[in-house]
Design goal:
Helices cover 53% and strands 9% of the residues. By secondary structure, it is an alpha/beta fold. The structure holds adenosine monophosphate (AMP) and magnesium ion.
Length: 363
């Protein structure tokens, strides 16, 4: 990946970032219908593919280095496209390196603990990307819009006074700072949906029988509290976008555009972490060379001592079928190998030798 492309990603997401300390009014400052000059979906989809490719590459390094973790917080109102965004954006990464957790109304057990408890237990480990589909930010959103949720938390009087929200912003900022200091980077994405687009998506969920399950009457009733949510979002963005864990507001009315933005934001966070494959030192390399000699000595009769090295020397670039050589390079390598096999057979070489070469190549 050239620096140029990395810069373009950073440039692309810059307008979505909430400047720490800025006072945000969501409806005024962010347009849910924005698409950043992309006229056609097709142009955008190419960028999405690039973002996904980049994430895959960086995630492999993140896992190998095993030092940093990445937490992606995804917040939005119903029907904003959280699930679809996760599905699309993470489609290219190794499932072993990703965990996705969703958070519903807290259970009795969860209510028996402090409000961050269940989220702390769900954090990604080092080397992992963790996605929170809804998060501790519900604690200053739905809980704020519906204070009966706060009642259920059985807080001591001192913790549920009028400054409860200010305290929660502080708790969250401090907690995120602590996590960041300990190697866990955090990026936060708000999928910003317009009221009208939500109405249309709710109707779609009613009109398509296979989608009926997605809509509860309560979801539709929440629309009555639209302005309260916008206010809660605005204050959340103003109070909790920090240098160490910034908020990004992603225009949500066009799903394809929202996905490009989310992929770019996550890719950018990985680029900033800049994880590297661990390198072994000279002593360890010497041991590996010793093991190599032993493995080569074990080659069966007629087999190349190291078919991998042989195919690399033949200009294959990377191991056959391994690593991440470009698709084109891989195809070219395959073609070259096939031609080589053919030539060998035609020259009437020893059949067993041709077979071993094919085996080595086809791995
Ligand atoms: P969904 O993500 O659509 O399956 O819905 C999950 C529901 O759980 C939403 O209505 C959220 O508002 C609600 N929820 C999530 N976290 C909390 C919380 N801390 N307190 C109360 N309700 C919550
Ligand atoms: Mg729902």
């Amino acid at each position: 990946m050239t620096d140029d492309r990395l810069e373009r990603i950073a440039e692309f997401i810059a307008p979505l970032r909430v400047t720490p300390g800025a006072k945000v009014t969501l409806a005024r400052d962010f347009d849910p219908g924005e698409r950043a000059g992309f006229v056609r979906k097709k142009d955008g989809l190419e960028l999405l593919d690039r973002g996904i490719e980049l994430m895959s590459e960086y995630q492999a390094r993140l896992a190998a280095q095993d030092t940093y973790g990445l937490l992606v917080v995804l917040q939005a109102l119903d029907a904003a496209g959280k699930d679809g965004t996760i599905r699309h954006v993470m489609s290219g990464v190794n499932p072993q390196g990703v965990s996705v957790r969703s958070f519903k109304v807290p259970s009795a057990e969860e209510l028996d603990h402090d409000y961050l408890w269940r989220f702390a237990r769900a954090l990604p480990s080092r080397g992992e990307i963790g996605i929170f589909n809804r998060s501790y930010y519900e604690e200053v959103l739905v809980v704020r819009v519906h204070p009966e949720n706060l009642e259920r938390q059985r807080l001591p009087r001192s913790a549920r006074g009028r400054d409860v929200w200010r305290r929660r912003y502080r708790d969250i900022n401090d907690w995120e700072h602590y996590l960041t200091d300990n190697g866990f980077r955090i990026v936060k994405i708000l999928l910003n949906l317009s009221r009208e687009e939500q109405r249309v998506r709710f109707l779609r969920r009613i009109d398509l029988p296979d989608h009926n399950w997605k809509l509860s009457p309560a979801d539709a009733r929440e629309r009555d509290r639209w302005d309260d949510y916008q206010k809660a979002f605005s204050e959340m963005l103003s109070q909790t976008s920090t240098d160490w864990a910034p908020w990004y507001v992603v225009p949500g009315d066009r799903k394809w555009f929202a996905r490009i933005c989310a992929a770019a934001i996550i890719a950018n966070a990985l680029i900033e972490i800049d994880p590297r494959y661990p390198r072994v030192d000279a002593a360890q390399r010497a041991v590996l060379q010793q093991v190599k000699a032993e493995l080569e000595a074990q080659a069966p009769e007629g087999a190349a001592p190291d078919p991998f090295a042989a195919s690399r020397a033949a200009g294959d670039g990377d191991a056959p079928g391994r690593g991440k050589g470009g698709k084109k390079a891989k195809k070219a390598g395959k073609k070259a190998r096939k031609a080589e096999e053919r030539a060998r057979r035609e020259a009437g070489r020893h059949e067993a030798a041709a077979e071993t070469a094919a085996e080595g190549a086809g791995r």
